[in-house]
């Protein structure tokens, strides 16, 4: 078929004035010059303007002490620390609410999206109403709604709704001894002794839960737990291999769960629970001790998740509808049931349609987290482009840094999702 | 120069608050009213003999400095606390103190508190972008108190959060505490604690680099205070022009040409007082006992009545 | 009819079976309910859950906004529980008192008729445009997209822009003419004329290089300048209307101006960016990509902040642009980056055959895009476009942070009025604003769905 | 476990009888009466070609046989198992019946080999290795073993359709249904697919095939069925069917299609 | 104005000569050598049918003639105009050459009439009324004047393909290219399109047609070309081509296609 004489390379092209290649070169050079000139003049003007008015510039301010308090800090922080530290605190708070928001929104969005395809008209109507209401009200309203109209109706700390762990454990212990599981009953009773006070409180200051305090021996339990996870993974792999080998299926999920949960529990029992809880106590105005989830965070998280889920629901619906009916029918006609059909045929294909617009929604959620400042959530925008900017007045540096951070987050998210999408892209002829 | 720009433009660009009862807020007809607003109107009256030639830029706390730096406004009259860093590194000049304020705390009566020092461990609501945020930090740290600070973007959400019980205390400049009480579900359930934890001298600000403009704004303020001190008010200013009192004569321009030094006509003070009133009138109109706010003049009484307001002599 | 004992051959009688109605269990209300409401236990549970949700949400709303609400009053006293003697819900007199501000912002009372004319004209022009069957679509569209913005601009601002120099003036050549009439400066229009002629001349000179016809190019340039000239003339002419500065605008007026401008400007810009992103010229392609990704990556708030307060620092001297205009530009660029991605999706969905078909009948790339590709691509992405419009409309709430008082902003400013300070003022305002936003956004999304369905019906495959 | 035994009993009873039996089958789409009193018995190993104008209900009838559509009246018995709402029976039937669609409906995200092993592994619980062997066997049979590692998008239409046939065969069905398997193909590719089907027919597979390839019908069909307006109009062996159609509509249709 | 005159000169020179001339044309897709030294002259009024196996480069060759693809070596001269990178020449050529695609490529957002008037109005700058008259003329010719107001999606495949032919004719091309115009059609519709093409051929239009409809080739072709692996393997008049193919590959191919 292929003679040697045909493997010559293509010849180079001739030049002419009307050649698109030359024209494009001219246009591009002109554009490049214009862009560079614009950038340069922006820079020069800013320099001149700042110098003329004697406005401080540079990033030196990041080392000055901040002097203001922050409600929610994932890393240790106090007023005497620097603006740079405050920046980090804000960044982490933004990342926290964005990451959790993305997870929540995805879950709700998938559920609602599937509900919109349900046969049940009530559920379908509810899902549609959900989508219409959440998508058509500005997110700011929704955040304020959750914060001012819902969460603020919680009781004050003194009237907290409390959920005692002790009665719960005791109840379980009674149940266990009732059916003859004495060791388990003893263990639960011992646990109940550890958590003497009620542990979980909900009030208008947020949700307070006990903070686990680990004693020395706890590391043993921890490593057993880690080993359990590893074993569960090995088990899953073994199960997959076995299915390939023999066709037998194995409930590897439940078995894995047992591997992760049971051995640490037994070890804990044997070691006499080297774990105690620092229970929150009401002292003065607030609860002291324990871990607290502030309502500002909850309101922002819930509002963002619910708002974005409305959009995700539509994306999911479109994605599922985009997989042609023929695919489902082909799977059915091969004898696959609806579960495997969904898992093996429909969802992998729908994901390709879903992922790109889903990425945009993730980015939107991240950017919308800047609205948290309305309810006092200390995110990057509130702390840095808000308080810090106001205290230092260095608008150029601060806004540039803020924009850069959001840009980097966005680009990283897109890149990650793009990589995933490329991995699952269809191979075409 | 700024004055020339203002004259060419035919109006003064004045930065005010986006809504601060008694200082700057729109009324039912959409007119901006308040102490800060009236000061801008007074300057406009001095320059144009028309107090309405003001263009208001309602600014949020964190936009205000950038707006002034970039030249979007000529004068920032927006309850801004005079601090050293603002006066220096931001490139501004404070012209005086329009209102001596201080930061206070409001709490529920039911808590039975007598002092801020009993607020250990309390949650405190504050509006972001203010010096209040920093003062709390300073005060509680010095007194070894723990606290949780929740900073909101606008005053309304701050109040709602406090009202709903999210915070044990609400802190802001004392002038605001009065306005805030009007919005509480049960105003009588709340008290203002006696401590004033900071000095909050609020005053108008101009940019560095234009001393003539700086002088103009500064002396407009002094003149308003002097007018009150000398008993010149909007009703009697026409008669006062012919007053024999030499101080009044200098002030109102019937003796000397003091206005010209700052690029204004000689009757600049008369214009201001006639259209806007003297300092006392402005205060009473916006914050006085006949307003819903009913704020006591306190430190803002004239120096000779036991307060701090002290106009430099025109001479 | 055959029996179950199936013969190898069979011929139906000449008169065939007539269709019969379906069995009862599959028809009518019963069949529908069985299929959609109570087919299984799960369905019954879902149905109950749905009813519970409705019960949890609706009654409290009704109580706050209607049953417990106060409808008449002149100040805060009317809405205080102490005076009314019962729990108080929404304080509607507050909205009534601020009604003019909500509609017009701080627009001078004597000039509000101008806003009314703009509102009215908009409705009159828009409604027939939205009704598919209404005649004169082309004229209507031209009126709405071409003439209406111009009229609105002149009416709302008062027109009579202070235009002194055009291109040549910026490089110091102003012919020394000072005469002016009716707000028009002769020197400006002289410069305009000269520039037009220069542009035509250079167009004719360069035409062959780019494979165009001299006459056609020159005519094209002349037409473009003529349109620009007419627009500028309308804005320059003194119609005797008092000037109203944009800082006096507010409320719904600003919300609509921003939304409509953003919508109208983002579509063409977005299309250009989308085409740029698909360009074969690397520089055009990458600058489009960078532009799009930048705007999509940063929060609109920072963009608005930048455009409003920081831009002057980057521009020479005391060069200032109107505040609203800056926000408009920010919003438009932001929206166009999003629009570009939507349009790109549409372009990608057009099969290669359409490009080839167009090329094969001799259409050049510009015409091909305009006549064949874009109409199809845009039609494909109507839902995406409308989604962007809705997003844009909702995003107008953000301009508050740059001290432009849109609907929400004006309400917030009104909250600070001591004369209306009550515990429920805030919720009343938010409730009202929420309703307005919902009505607009929901209307748009419904309309787009109807449109989509209609287009679908038109061109079934 | 009474159901399974019931199914078994049916199956045993059916073993001796017909592969597919439709008795008075009626079906409506909403109010549209799409199948009207269809009666049809297909013997084991019989090859039946169905033709008829567009919209006459050919596809619907075929799809009722493996319950991709539900019928509302009458009985359908496949390989001795009567189709009811019972999911277990539907599964049984679908395992026994292979189907090939007009548009192939290959799974684009899986390779050819994975397309073929998916159902055997998940439905028949076959070990992967065995499933792959079976798949390669049938891929060889349809003459494209070398494409096993590619994705459907990389194959020509004819190749894709052959993969679809192999995929169905991997489940070792007793009955094969074809719904216009060649009508989406380029003319050159029609032949390779028809060849595959002919060889399948020669091996004695029970086949029901909707097609307008009259050459194919002549060559392999035991009976040809002509449908119109949801009913079977004429049914006969190919020779008399083509040479001497009885019903007026059949004649009209054949004159159109054999231009 | 030297360019235009150059084109003119070419054109004048060509007027007497060939409608299409390919001289040593070579084309690569990346490293894949898809057209190998193609030499072909088409006289005015000549009708040529191109056939060959899939992937042999038939479409590519046809598409090079109106520059939907760029060739990299050799010369292509259409109606006396040599194709270079010059956009003006490409425009000239495309105006002279009509093309009909396998998948019609009608513009779905325009009515049939608008499809036909689009290019005459925008490229030939014809007044709308005149363009519509011309369009109706050709729509009548392909026997679907009554469909002028409909959208392509509302027509059958055969009708769509006839519209595509009419659309190309409206530009009054001197040469028509067809790329498998009937292969995407249902068998019932092939005939109507072929009829249209036959009548076009009878009017003396220069035609290059990729098709596997050998009946058509026999009936109208002046020459038949067989291509494989990017080269012209055999070229002859239809009678000897079909009855007595010279090259082994041609024989093999013909045996497959005439099954
Ligand atoms: N899901 C459905 N809902 C309503 N009507 C349907 C549905 N599916 C098919 N029909 C209608 O039922 C009739 C028979 O359809 P069917 O697909 O069985 O015809 P066919 O004989 O296979 O035609 P073709 O040769 O075009 O495939 C057609 O009129 C069709 O419009
Ligand atoms: N854009 C492209 N890039 C790379 N290779 C291509 C491209 N287009 C076509 N080819 C390859 O070039 C070869 C010739 O393609 P062409 O479409 O001309 O064949 P053909 O003879 O028309 O085949 P068919 O009968 O299938 O239409 C094929 O092998 C094809 O895979
Ligand atoms: Mg069918
Ligand atoms: Mg081809």
UniProtKB/TrEMBL annotation, chain A:
One of its GO terms (cellular component) is ATP-binding cassette (ABC) transporter complex. The chain crosses the membrane at residues 21-43, 86-115, 136-154, 220-239, 251-273, 293-316, 398-420. Keywords: Amino-acid transport, Cell membrane, Membrane, Transmembrane, Transmembrane helix, Transport. GO terms for biological process: amino acid transport. It is found in: Cell inner membrane; Cell membrane. InterPro entries: AA_ABC_transptr_permease_3TM (IPR010065), ArtM/GltK/GlnP/TcyL/YhdX-like (IPR043429), MetI-like (IPR000515), MetI-like_sf (IPR035906). Residues 91-417 form the ABC transmembrane type-1 domain. It is a multi-pass membrane protein. Its main location: membrane. The keyword Membrane applies. One of its GO terms (molecular function) is transmembrane transporter activity. It comes from the Bacteria. NCBIfam families: HEQRo_perm_3TM. PANTHER family: AMINO-ACID ABC TRANSPORTER PERMEASE PROTEIN YHDX-RELATED (PTHR30614:SF37), MEMBRANE COMPONENT OF AMINO ACID ABC TRANSPORTER (PTHR30614). Belongs to the binding-protein-dependent transport system permease family. HisMQ subfamily. This is Amino acid ABC transporter membrane protein 1 (PAAT family). It comes from Aquabacter spiritensis.
UniProtKB/TrEMBL annotation, chain C:
Signal peptide: none annotated. The keyword Glycoprotein does not apply. One of its GO terms (molecular function) is transmembrane transporter activity. Its main location: membrane. The chain crosses the membrane at residues 37-58, 113-132, 139-157, 188-210, 216-237, 249-274, 294-315, 367-386, 398-415, 427-445. Keywords: Cell membrane, Membrane, Transmembrane, Transmembrane helix, Transport. It is a multi-pass membrane protein. InterPro entries: AA_ABC_transptr_permease_3TM, ArtM/GltK/GlnP/TcyL/YhdX-like, MetI-like, MetI-like_sf. It holds the Pfam family BPD_transp_1. Residues 252-448 form the ABC transmembrane type-1 domain. It comes from the Bacteria. Belongs to the binding-protein-dependent transport system permease family. HisMQ subfamily. NCBIfam families: HEQRo_perm_3TM. This is Amino acid ABC transporter membrane protein 2 (PAAT family).
From TrEMBL, chains D, E:
One of its GO terms (molecular function) is ATP hydrolysis activity. The keyword Chloroplast does not apply. Residues 20-254 form the ABC transporter domain. Transmembrane segments: none annotated. CDD domains: ABC_HisP_GlnQ. InterPro entries: AAA+_ATPase, ABC_ATPase_HisP-typ, ABC_transporter-like_ATP-bd, ABC_transporter-like_CS, MetN_ABC_transporter-like, P-loop_NTPase. Keywords: ATP-binding, Nucleotide-binding, Transport. PROSITE patterns: ABC_TRANSPORTER_1 (PS00211), ABC_TRANSPORTER_2 (PS50893). PANTHER family: AMINO ACID IMPORT ATP-BINDING PROTEIN, PHOSPHONATES IMPORT ATP-BINDING PROTEIN PHNC. Belongs to the ABC transporter superfamily. This is General L-amino acid transport system ATP-binding protein.
């Amino acid at each position: 078929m292929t003679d040697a004489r045909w493997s010559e390379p293509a010849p180079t092209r001739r030049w002419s004035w009307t050649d698109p290649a030359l024209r494009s070169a001219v246009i591009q050079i002109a554009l490049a010059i214009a862009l560079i000139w614009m950038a340069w003049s922006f820079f020069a003007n800013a320099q001149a303007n700042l110098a003329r008015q004697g406005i401080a510039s540079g990033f030196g301010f990041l080392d000055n002490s901040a002097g203001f308090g922050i409600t929610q800090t994932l890393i240790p922080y106090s007023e005497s620390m620097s603006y740079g530290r405050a920046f980090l605190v804000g960044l982490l708070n933004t990342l926290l609410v964005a990451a959790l928001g993305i997870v929540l929104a995805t879950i709700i969005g998938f559920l609602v999206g599937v509900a919109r395809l349900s046969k049940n008209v009530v559920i379908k109507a509810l899902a549609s109403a959900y989508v219409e209401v959440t998508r058509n009200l500005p997110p700011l309203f929704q955040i304020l709604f959750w914060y001012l109209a819902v969460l603020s109706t919680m009781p004050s700390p003194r009237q907290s709704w409390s959920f005692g762990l002790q009665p719960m454990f005791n109840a379980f212990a009674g149940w266990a001894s009732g059916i003859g599981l004495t060791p388990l009953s003893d263990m639960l009773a011992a646990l109940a002794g550890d958590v003497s006070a009620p542990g979980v409180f909900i009030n208008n200051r947020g949700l307070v839960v006990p903070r686990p305090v680990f004693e020395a021996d706890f590391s043993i339990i921890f490593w057993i737990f880690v080993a359990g996870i590893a074993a569960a993974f090995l088990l899953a792999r073994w199960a997959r291999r076995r299915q390939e080998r023999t066709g037998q299926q194995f409930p590897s999920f439940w078995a894995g769960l047992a591997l992760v949960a049971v051995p640490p529990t037994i070890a804990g029992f044997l070691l006499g629970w080297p774990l105690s809880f620092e229970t929150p106590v009401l002292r003065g105005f607030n609860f002291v001790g324990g871990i607290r989830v502030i309502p500002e965070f909850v309101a922002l998280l819930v509002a963002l998740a619910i708002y974005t889920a409305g959009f995700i629901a539509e994306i999911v619906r479109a994605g599922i509808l985009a997989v042609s009916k023929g695919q489902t029918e082909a799977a059915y006609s091969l004898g696959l049931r609806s579960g495997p059909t969904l898992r093996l045929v429909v969802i992998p294909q729908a994901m390709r349609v879903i992922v790109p617009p889903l990425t945009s929604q993730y980015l939107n959620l991240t950017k919308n987290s800047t609205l948290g400042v309305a309810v006092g959530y200390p995110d990057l925008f509130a702390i840095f482009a808000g308080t810090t900017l106001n205290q230092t007045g260095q608008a150029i540096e601060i806004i540039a840094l803020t924009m850069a951070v959001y840009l980097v987050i966005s680009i990283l998210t897109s890149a990650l999702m793009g990589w995933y999408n490329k991995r699952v892209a269809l191979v075409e002829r | 120069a700024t004055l020339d720009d203002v004259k060419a433009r035919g109006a003064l660009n004045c930065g005010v608050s986006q809504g601060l009862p008694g200082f700057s807020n729109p009324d039912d007809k959409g007119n901006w009213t308040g102490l800060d607003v009236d000061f801008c109107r007074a300057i406009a009256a001095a320059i144009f003999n028309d107090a309405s030639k003001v263009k208001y830029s309602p600014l949020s706390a964190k936009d205000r400095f950038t707006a002034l730096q970039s030249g979007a406004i000529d004068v920032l009259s927006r309850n801004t606390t005079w601090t050293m860093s603002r006066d220096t590194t931001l490139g501004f000049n404070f012209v005086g103190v329009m209102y001596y304020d201080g930061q206070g705390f409001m709490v529920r009566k039911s808590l039975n508190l007598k002092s801020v020092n009993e607020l250990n461990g309390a949650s405190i609501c504050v509006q972001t972008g203010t010096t209040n945020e920093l003062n709390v930090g300073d005060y509680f740290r010095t007194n070894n108190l723990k606290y949780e600070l929740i900073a909101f973007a606008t005053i309304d959400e701050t109040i709602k959060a406090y009202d709903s019980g999210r915070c044990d205390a609400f802190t802001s400049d004392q002038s605001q505490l009065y306005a805030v009480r009007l919005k509480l579900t049960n105003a009588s359930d709340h008290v203002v604690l006696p401590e004033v934890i900071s000095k909050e001298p609020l005053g108008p600000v101009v940019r560095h680099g234009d001393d003539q403009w700086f002088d103009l704004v500064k002396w407009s303020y002094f003149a308003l205070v002097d007018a009150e001190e000398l008993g010149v008010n909007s009703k009697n200013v026409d008669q006062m022009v012919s007053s024999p009192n030499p101080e009044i004569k200098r002030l109102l321009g019937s003796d000397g040409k003091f206005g010209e030094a700052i690029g204004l006509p000689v009757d600049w003070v008369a214009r201001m007082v006639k259209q806007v009133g003297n300092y006392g009138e402005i205060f009473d109109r916006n914050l006085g006992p006949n307003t819903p706010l009913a704020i006591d003049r306190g430190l803002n009484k004239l120096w000779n009545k036991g307060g701090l307001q002290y106009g430099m002599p025109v001479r | 009819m055959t029996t179950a004992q199936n013969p190898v051959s069979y011929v139906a009688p000449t008169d065939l079976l007539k269709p019969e109605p379906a069995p009862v269990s599959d028809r009518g209300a019963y069949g529908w309910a069985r299929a959609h409401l109570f087919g299984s236990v799960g369905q019954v549970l879902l149905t109950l859950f749905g009813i519970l949700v409705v019960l949890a949400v609706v009654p409290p709303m009704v109580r706050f906004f209607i049953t417990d609400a106060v409808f008449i009053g002149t100040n805060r006293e009317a809405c205080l529980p102490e005076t009314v003697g019962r729990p108080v819900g929404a304080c509607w007199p507050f909205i009534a008192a601020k009604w003019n501000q909500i509609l017009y912002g701080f627009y001078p009372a004597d000039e509000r008729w101008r806003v009314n004319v703009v509102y009215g004209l908009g409705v009159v022009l828009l409604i027939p445009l939205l009704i598919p069957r209404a005649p004169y679509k082309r004229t209507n569209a031209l009126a709405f997209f071409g003439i209406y913005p111009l009229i609105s601009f002149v009416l709302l601002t008062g027109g009579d822009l202070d235009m002194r120099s055009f291109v040549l003036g910026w490089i110091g050549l102003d012919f020394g003419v000072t005469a002016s009439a009716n707000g028009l400066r002769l020197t400006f229009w002289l410069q305009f004329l000269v520039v037009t002629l220069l542009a035509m001349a250079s167009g004719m000179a360069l035409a062959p290089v780019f494979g165009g016809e001299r006459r056609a190019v020159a005519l094209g340039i002349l037409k473009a300048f003529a349109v620009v000239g007419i627009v500028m003339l309308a804005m320059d002419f003194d119609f005797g209307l008092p000037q109203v500065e944009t800082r006096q605008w507010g409320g719904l007026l600003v919300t609509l101006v921003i939304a409509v401008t953003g919508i109208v400007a983002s579509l063409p810009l977005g299309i250009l960016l989308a085409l740029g992103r698909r360009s074969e010229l690397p520089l055009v392609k990458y600058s489009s990509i960078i532009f799009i990704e930048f705007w999509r990556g940063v929060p609109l708030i920072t963009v608005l902040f930048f455009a409003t307060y920081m831009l002057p620092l980057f521009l020479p001297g005391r060069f200032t642009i109107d505040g609203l205009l800056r926000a408009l530009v920010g919003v438009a660029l932001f929206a166009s980056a999003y629009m570009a991605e939507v349009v790109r999706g549409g372009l990608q969905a057009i099969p290669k055959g359409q490009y080839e078909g167009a090329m094969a009948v001799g259409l050049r790339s510009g015409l091909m895009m305009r006549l064949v590709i874009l109409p199809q691509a845009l039609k494909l992405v109507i839902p995406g476009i409308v989604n962007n419009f809705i997003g844009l409309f909702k995003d107008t709430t953000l301009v508050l942070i740059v001290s432009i008082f849109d609907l929400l902003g004006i309400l917030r400013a009104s909250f600070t009025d001591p004369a209306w300070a009550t515990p429920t003022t805030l919720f009343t305002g938010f409730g009202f604003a929420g309703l307005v936003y919902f009505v607009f956004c929901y209307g748009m999304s419904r309309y787009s769905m109807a449109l989509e369905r209609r287009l679908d019906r038109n061109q079934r495959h | 476990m009474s159901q399974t035994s019931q199914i078994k009993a049916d199956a045993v009873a059916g073993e001796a009888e017909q592969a597919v039996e439709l008795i008075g089958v009626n079906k409506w789409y909403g109010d549209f009466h799409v199948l009207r009193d269809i009666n049809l018995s297909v013997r084991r190993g019989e090859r039946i070609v169905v033709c008829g104008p567009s919209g006459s209900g050919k596809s619907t009838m075929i799809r009722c046989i493996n319950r991709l559509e539900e019928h509302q009246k009458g009985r359908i018995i496949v390989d001795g198992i009567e189709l009811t709402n019972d999911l277990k029976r539907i599964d049984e039937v679908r395992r026994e019946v292979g189907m090939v669609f007009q548009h192939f409906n290959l799974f684009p995200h899986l390779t050819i080999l994975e397309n073929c092993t998916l159902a055997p592994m998940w439905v028949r619980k076959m070990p992967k290795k065995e499933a792959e062997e079976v798949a390669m066997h049938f891929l060889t049979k349809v003459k494209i073993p070398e494409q096993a590692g590619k994705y459907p998008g990389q194959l020509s239409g004819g190749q894709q359709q052959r993969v679809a046939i192999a995929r169905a065969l991997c489940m070792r069905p007793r009955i094969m249904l074809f719904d216009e398997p060649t009508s989406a193909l380029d003319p050159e590719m029609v032949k390779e697919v028809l060849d595959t089907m002919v060889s399948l027919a020669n091996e004695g597979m029970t086949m029901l095939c909707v097609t307008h390839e009259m050459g194919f019908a002549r060559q392999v069909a035991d009976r040809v069925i002509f449908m119109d307006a949801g009913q079977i109009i004429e049914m006969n062996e190919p020779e008399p069917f083509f040479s001497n159609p009885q019903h007026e509509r059949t004649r009209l249709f054949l004159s159109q299609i054999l231009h």
